[in-house]
Amino acid sequence: MADHQREGMISGRGTFVPLVFAPGEAFQFDWSEDWAVLGGERTKLQVAHTKLSHSRAYIVRAYLMQTHEMLFDALTQAFRVLGGVPRRGIFDNMKTAVDRIGSGKARQVNARFAAMASHYLFEPEFCNPASGWEKGQVEKNVQDARRRLWQKQPSFPDLAALNAWLEEGCIAQWGQIPHGVLPGSIADVHTEEVASLMEMGRPFDGFVEHTKRVSPTCLIHFERIIDRSHDLPGRTIYDWRHYLAVIQRKPGALRNGAPFTELPDGFRHLQAHLLKHPGGDREMVEILALVLQHDEQAVLCAVELALEAGVPTKTHILNLLHRLIDGKDDKIARIDTPQALELRREPKADVGRYDALRMKDLRHAS
To answer: Which of 126, 156, 284, 329 is the most exposed place for a label (fewest CB within 10 A)?
Structure first.
């Protein structure tokens, strides 16, 4: 039985109705689980498969979890690579799309998924439960991708590198695989189909809001992971800015505070200098707290200029910061001292000179 004959709705035991899709009519989406070596570690991945039903052009993208954010990003990247948005999307009843399955085709669609579909202007369609043949093209694509891509993959430093490799590999394979029904390759048919796709427009803002309780250490537990980096579950991610109010009351916590181990280089070098002196921890806290009222990059620039000048003090940094802000320049203009005003011999402090002046009988204007 040919591939296109298996892609349809079941009508009897072992028999299928072949389906035909017009250009730009529909795409199919599905998830699979696969493995890859990321950063030297074998990692289990959730893989998003998106396939145009007419041209059969497909894109594969890997994530660490199946969440709303990952689904929205997968579709955004797929529409970008495929050149536009079809008028209809065919999905199974995944939890990130369907809150409740009703009788027949009735579905209670997740609000954020519905917003995403409305943003891209495609109509979502959901398969009947346990009816994978209703999106047979992408189901088959899962198996084909394991043979064409995953069995040949090298190791990667991170998830971004893997996805770049997957995208390049998918596009290259379009030109190597015959369409099977229409003349030419998948790439040939896809080139013609692009004109029938809707423009993608701006990407959907795929955030999802959650109410979380903040711990006494200013942390929240969040099960989702940034999919653009190889961050594994269980990692604690700090933002030192969130702790500025705390260390203003407890400046001693700055020295070994975990959130402050990843300060920008300029702040770290200043801290290393100030903590050598009594009261340096409080002075450093007061300098860091400047980012609560001023642009962080301006504060950092003032710190770097103070370090360069060899005067890393709060007073000098404040002076530099105000000059940066008032001048609205990226850095303070340097003024060359005229040769006639250059200091050639530094005067020595001598209070005896003052006493000598007092002893002289000098007339002063009243």
So the answer is: 329
Structure-block tokens of residue 186: 């998948």
Cβ atoms of 225 and 65 closer than 8 Å: yes
For 118, the token pair is 């409305």
Domain-embedded: residue 308: yes
* Pair 33, 65: CB distance under 8 Å: no
Instruction: Give CA separation, 169 vs 241, 354, 365, in Å.
Output: 41, 84, 92
Is 112 contained in some domain? yes
Q: Which residues contact 354 (CB under 8 A, 6 or more apart)?
A: none
CB atoms within 10 A of CB 161: 15
Domain that holds residue 130: 3-196
pTM: 0.59
Give the separation between CA 268 and CA 270, rounded to whole angstroms.
5
pLDDT at 151 > cutoff 90? no
SS3 content of the chain, % helix, strand, coil (to 5): 45, 15, 40
Backbone angles phi, psi at 109, to 5 degrees: -80, 140
- Condensed to tens digits (0 to 9), the pLDDT of residues 301-323 reads 999 999 998 888 989 999 998 88
Place of tokens 């802000």: 325
Q: Per residue in 122-140, pLDDT tens?
A: 999 998 775 555 556 767 8
Give yes or no: residues 59 and 118 share one domain: yes
Residue 217 lies in a domain: no
C-beta separation of 332 from 323 below 8 A = yes
